[in-house]
Automatic annotation (TrEMBL):
The lineage of its organism: Eukaryota, Metazoa, Chordata, Craniata, Vertebrata. The chain crosses the membrane at residues 7-28, 210-230, 237-255, 293-314, 334-358, 431-458, 479-501, 579-601, 613-641. It comes from the Eukaryota. PANTHER family: CHOLINE TRANSPORTER-LIKE (SLC FAMILY 44) (PTHR12385), CHOLINE TRANSPORTER-LIKE PROTEIN 5 (PTHR12385:SF42). It holds the Pfam family Choline_transpo. Its main location: membrane. Signal peptide: none annotated. InterPro entries: Choline_transptr-like (IPR007603). GO terms for cellular component: plasma membrane. It is a multi-pass membrane protein. Belongs to the CTL (choline transporter-like) family. Choline transporter. Keywords: Antiport, Cell membrane, Glycoprotein, Membrane, Transmembrane, Transmembrane helix, Transport. This is Choline transporter-like protein.
Length: 685
């Protein structure tokens, strides 16, 4: 063996080093606190240590009526002053009422001014000037914190929306308004709050049932191992039971269609054609026609004939597919360590996802605070222009646009780094896709090398090398990193294009015309098909790389033409394997799911006292079912890779050898018997 695709290997290493450098730069410039903590109108974090806002962890909106929805409040900026406060208001109050009573009720003023701008303590200032300068809110309403922001404390009483059991409130501008006026500003908050309550209950269920969930995962693992072992003996039986079951069901369908066709004979109107009655919204009308049942019977007869003919002409290939499945079970039995390799792939992908997510957050939070003019007047020409909060009051903007504020908008900058943050995010996503595909490619090549060493062992298991999985992993890393990176690069480029197309489709959804929509749909479909094709080619190319140690392009070409020369066998093996593995996943997930259902619903008397008290028993139940399916998928993906590797080795064996003493077959005796060719040469001791 020698190193393959060295140039791509060097590029891959350089890209990884650059990716690390990008993460370091993002870490230097970024600040995740901008995501964790809300930011007030002055660009200060709420709750940040060693600042004036250290004990003020909640964001308060002066006039929440100006905010269209919670989405605006959380993600964008609401055109009103925002302050950090230590707690949300717990009562109704207006600045007018507080100002009028501050002399003989100073406690009300002291409570209200904690929601005013820091340092403001001038209750003698006129109401008009206070509201114009937004020194204080015109009114406060009972609120509660959600996502570290103060939202009105909505509740429903006898079907009527209320806030603190009141249906009206004073807006601080001389008007009495209904609390329904707050509905638009807080649209959907009740549903989100209910979701938060449900989320807390779900968290509690996980906290008290996690070990039972792990037990369910362990049972799923044991069932998956048992299914793979039994496939050596039951693969053929399961497949033929399914095939004959399908034939029987279709046969019953043919008989039922004929019975309905004969039963409708002589009934008035049953001899009409579908063309005569035209289109009907009630599809039961068509079932009263003999022509309908005749058409069904003809279709089912056609399907039945096709299946029978396929079984007749493809019986030998089906037998080969089943024999390969059994051989795959035998190979895994000799190399059991391969079943646990998906854990390594999972860890590598988890590292890639974590690094990508952290880098994306630091990139997104890079930059300095950018302030923009927020004006109440829609015709203000300075609205949404950048401003400097320190010099804003000395400009003429406040004169031309009364009530305008210079408030924090977002984080950004004018430096070269900040201008190219979007490009860096694209690079982050692209390298992430490349690394994930490389981790998957490494796993496929490693498993293929281990199973190929089993097939090409002349005396099984005596000639299987020691530690075949570890040796295969070492060969893949030492010699073929460049080839694996090359295949992963091609796939990552296609996946990035698909991501960009999805982004464009999402952005243009409201404005695109019919031609643009059609073009995007065609492009998305084409690149989806291209991705599926490349995954198929890459998978088989990695197998050839593991066997012969050639570069990616040569291996992909040889694998493709080898498969094309055995295209019927490929199709039969693929479908037989897919069916049996899907059946195994359903059996494992369904069996463990049924057991978990009986357990969590206390229907197993022996364990009735052990069942934890849950808010929603379906939470651990669904977790066990989904987790069991994923566990089974992890084990069966190894099995599928084993079968694919053995199949390519089998095809190569047939083309390179003839069963003679000089060129003996390496296939098992069962495969040789199915082929019905020359007898196996006696294996040398």
């Amino acid at each position: 063996r020698h190193c393959t695709d060295v140039i791509c290997c060097v590029i891959f290493i350089v890209v990884i080093l650059g990716y690390i450098a990008l993460g370091v730069v993002a870490w230097v410039h970024g600040d995740p606190r901008k995501v964790v903590y809300p930011t007030d109108s002055y660009g200060q974090f709420c709750g940040q240590r060693d600042t004036l806002n250290e004990n003020k962890t909640i964001l308060f909106y002066f006039n929440i009526l100006k905010c269209a929805s919670p989405v605006v409040l959380i993600n964008l900026q609401c055109p009103t002053t925002q302050l950090c406060v230590s707690k949300c208001p717990d009562r109704f109050a207006t600045y007018i009422d507080v100002q009028a009573s501050y002399r003989y009720r100073p406690d009300q003023w002291n409570y209200f001014r904690q929601f005013c701008k820091p340092g403001f303590n001038n209750p003698r200032k006129s109401v008009a000037q206070v509201l114009r300068d937004e020194d204080c809110p015109s009114m406060i309403v009972p609120s509660r914190p959600f996502l570290k922001r103060c939202f009105p404390d909505f509740s429903t009483k006898n079907g009527v929306l209320t806030v603190a059991n009141q249906t009206t409130f004073k807006d601080g501008r001389g008007k009495t308004r209904n609390v329904t006026d707050l509905r638009e500003a807080a649209n959907g908050i009740n549903n989100v709050l209910d979701a938060r309550s449900v989320g807390m209950k779900i968290f509690e269920d996980y906290a008290i049932s996690w070990y039972w969930i792990l037990i369910g995962m362990f049972i799923a693992m044991m069932l998956s191992l048992l299914f793979l072992v039994l496939l050596r003996f039951t693969a053929g039986v399961l497949f033929w039971i399914f095939i004959f079951g399908v034939i029987g069901i279709i046969g019953y369908g043919i008989w039922h269609c004929y019975w309905e066709y004969d039963h409708l004979k002589g009934i008035p109107g049953s001899d009409l054609t579908v063309y005569d009655i035209g289109f009907q919204t009630d599809f039961k009308v068509y079932l009263q026609l003999r022509q309908t049942w005749l058409a069904f019977m003809i279709i089912l007869c056609g399907v039945e004939i096709i299946i029978v003919l396929m079984l007749i002409f493809l019986r030998n290939r089906i037998r080969i597919a089943i024999a390969l499945l059994k051989e795959g079970s035998r190979a895994i039995g000799y190399i059991m360590s391969t079943l646990f390799y998906p854990i390594i792939t999972f860890l590598l992908i988890a590292i890639c996802i974590s690094y990508w997510a952290v880098t994306a957050v630091f990139l997104a939070t890079s930059g300095e605070p950018v302030y923009k003019v927020m004006a109440n007047q829609t015709l203000c020409k300075y609205a949404n222009l950048t401003c400097d909060p320190e010099t804003f009051n000395t400009t003429n903007v406040t004169k031309l646009c009364p009530g305008a504020q210079c408030t924090f908008a977002f984080y950004g900058g004018e430096s070269l780094y900040h201008k190219y943050i979007f490009i860096f995010q694209l690079a982050n996503a692209f390298v992430f896709l490349w690394l994930v595909n490389f981790a998957i490619a490494l796993g496929q090549c490693t498993l293929a090398g281990a199973f190929a060493s089993y097939y090409w062992a002349y005396r099984k298991p005596a000639d299987i090398p020691l530690w075949p999985l570890f040796s295969s992993f070492g060969r893949a890393i030492r010699y073929h990193t460049g080839s694996l990176a090359f295949g992963a690069l091609i796939l990552a480029i296609v996946q990035l294009i698909r991501v960009i197309l999805e982004y464009l489709d999402h952005k243009l959804k409201g404005t695109q015309n019919s031609f643009t929509r059609f073009l995007l749909c065609c492009l998305k479909c084409c690149f989806w098909c291209l991705e599926k094709f490349l995954k198929f080619i890459n998978r088989n190319a990695y197998i050839m790389i593991a066997i012969y140690g050639k570069n990616f392009c040569t291996s992909a070409k040889e694998a493709f033409f080898l498969l094309m020369r055995n295209v019927v066998r490929v199709a039969v093996l693929d479908k037989v394997t897919d069916f049996l593995l899907f059946l195994g996943k359903i059996l494992v997930a369904g069996g463990v799911g049924v057991l978990a259902f009986f357990f969590f619903t206390q229907r197993i008397p022996v364990f009735a006292q052990e069942v934890p008290v849950l808010n929603y028993y379906w939470v651990p139940l669904l977790t066990v079912i989904i987790g069991s399916y994923l566990v089974a998928h992890g084990f069966f993906s190894v099995y599928a890779m084993c079968v694919d590797t053995l199949f390519l080795c089998f095809c190569e064996d047939l083309e390179r050898n003839d069963g003679s003493t000089a060129k003996p077959y390496f296939m098992s005796a069962s495969l040789h018997r199915i082929l019905g060719k020359k007898k196996l040469s006696p294996k040398k001791a």
